[in-house]
Structures are given as C-alpha cells and as structure tokens.
Design goal:
39% of the residues lie in helices and 14% in strands. It contains eleven helices and nine strands. Helix 4 (111-119) packs parallel to helix 5 and helix 10 packs across helix 11 (291-309). The structure holds zinc ion (ZN).
C-alpha cells in the first residue's frame, strides 16, 4: 500500500550530528526507506539558534544535504516536485522525496527567497515554528501574538501562485484563521492532532479541523506522545484514535500521516521507527476500516492534495 508521510526532521538531525543517511541512527534510517511504495516530505527545520542572521544559510545547508542524500541513494530515492513525479518514482520502485521548509524565518523577509527555494525543489512551507516571525505567529505566542502580517499574506499568495503547500501546523489561532481565509488553495496541517483528544496548543480544535477539511485540506497525525495523550504514555493505539476522530470531524478525506520522526524525543509504543509506519495498515484494519479508507489515510489524501496544489 502507498504510504505518504507529511513531516520528518531527518535533515535537521543529520546536519546537527554531521551524519549521512547511511550513518543515520535515528527514527529514519536508510534501511527503513527501502521497499514498499511511498513518498515523504523532508523538512528543513530552522532551529531558533540560527534565526539571527543564519536562517537562510542553515536552510541552504539542509537543502544541499537533501539533494546529496537523494543523489547518493538514487537507487532507492527520487526527488518529486509534483504528484505526477511522486507516481513516477513509485512506479520505479523508489521512495518519492519532497522538500519542505519548517519556519518562515528561512525567507529572511523576502519573496525572492521563496521563489528561489521553489526552484531548489521546496514545495511546502510551514509558515512558523513556535514563535512570531515576519509572516505570522506560532502557537507559543498565544492569541496575543497576532495573525498573518502583510508580508505573510504576500507569501501565501505567492505560494498559491507558484503551487506550494501552505502548512498551518505550529500557527497560533489568529494566524491559522487568517491563512485559511487568505489561501486560494486548500491548506494542510502537516503534523498536528485533534485537541479534543489531547488538549495541547500544538493541536487543532474541531472548528480548525473542519475548516481545513471543508476546503479540501488534510491533517497529518503527529506521533509525538505529548500531542497524543496528556500523560504522554502513548502507543500506536492513540494514533489510530486520532485518525478515527479526524474522520468523524473532517470526513474520510481529512486524515494523513505527519509522524514528526527525528523531530520528537519520545515515540509511541509500536511506532518506534519509520519502518513501522506500515504496521498502521493492520491496526486500522483491526479497527474495522475498509481498504479504501485505509488507502486514503496512509497516503491517498495527501497525494490528492499534492495533485491539486503542486501539479
Ligand atoms: Zn514541527
């Protein structure tokens, strides 16, 4: 079955540790990426320690690492910048690798950077991490952090024009609602859960889930135990519960996967590494979901969104 995950921080982990993918010992290792039909968004996460003067520099290093990784392992990995290229990679038996930026700080407040990132392969931008930046405010700022700035509106409009996915994960509520109003394309929450099941500011309210789903967007379920259960004692069961809840609130077209592997310290029991993603198929089947619904959740919904926005 085709499996498409919307968010891993493997590039960040590798760069921080000075490792190559072949040497990786985190949640995502080379052996996990082989075999099976799949696609993956690799995020270039801008750590706050690089915000002051080095955000673009660090982003370039991660983009460079992405391309080195894809070229070094071209027998199993292939770059994809569209749904058509994802399908092509899968048909060749390779994992389709898509490039994302997590943190609008990477733009250093110029649309020129956004356009050049697109040319370098970036197809998704998570507008903020947890703080306020030139575009919008992250969830740690709370509602008083304000919404989308004038520049943020220009960024969303330019992303719509270029054909890039606008990611609302990490945004505070005012910024979220501004983006949903401004974006002409459906948006995605690449790695966020339902707040009704785990009351954490990184998670989405039912109104937010409906707003994303009603416009054709998707929500990638995050495996971070703190976003799955208030006591953090999460297992794959809670991931399945999140999927079931998102279907109830947003419909079958809403849920996707956004594991956050290599970006989280703890993992749910049963989902210890990337190689276990595919075990969700069996767990969803045990819960009584049909093959058609499981196909949508594990990859079909995110591929549909990519086809609509990127192609
Ligand atoms: Zn994140």
């Amino acid at each position: 079955m085709f499996v498409f995950d919307a968010h891993v921080d493997t590039l960040y982990r590798l760069l921080e540790r000075g490792e190559t993918l072949a040497e990786a010992k985190g949640h995502v290792q080379l052996e996990h990426l082989q075999g099976g039909k799949g696609a993956q968004f690799f995020a270039a996460f801008v750590d706050p320690k690089y915000y002051h003067g080095l955000a673009m520099h660090r982003t370039m290093e991660m983009i460079d690492l992405f391309w080195q990784m894809v070229e070094e392992h071209s027998n199993i990995l292939a770059f994809a910048g569209s749904a058509a290229e994802i399908k092509q990679a899968v048909a060749q038996g390779r994992l389709a690798c898509l490039l994302a930026i997590e943190g609008g700080e990477a733009l250093e407040a110029t649309l020129a950077a956004l356009r050049l990132y697109y040319r370098l392969g970036v197809r998704l931008v998570t507008l903020t991490w947890n703080y306020r930046n030139a575009l919008a405010a992250g969830q740690w700022e709370g509602p008083e952090g304000g919404g989308l700035s004038k520049f943020g509106r220009q960024v969303v409009a330019e992303m719509n024009r270029l054909g890039m996915l606008v990611d609302v994960s990490h945004l505070n509520e005012p910024s979220f609602w501004d983006v949903v109003q401004v974006s002409k394309d459906p948006v995605l929450a690449s790695h966020s859960n339902a707040r009704a099941l785990c009351d954490h500011p990184r998670n989405l309210t039912d109104e937010q889930i409906r707003a994303v789903a009603d416009r054709g967007g998707v929500v990638g379920v995050n495996f971070c135990p703190a976003f799955l259960r208030p006591d953090r004692r999460a297992s794959a069961e809670q991931v399945v519960e999140q999927i079931a809840y998102l279907i109830n609130v947003g419909g079958q077209g809403c849920p996707a996967l956004g594991s956050d592997f290599d970006g989280i310290d703890d993992v749910p029991g049963g989902l210890e590494h990337y190689g276990k993603l595919r075990s969700l198929e069996g767990l969803l089947r045990q819960k009584g979901f049909s093959t058609a619904v499981i196909e949508k959740v594990l990859g079909g919904n995110l591929l549909r969104l990519c086809a609509q926005v990127l192609d």
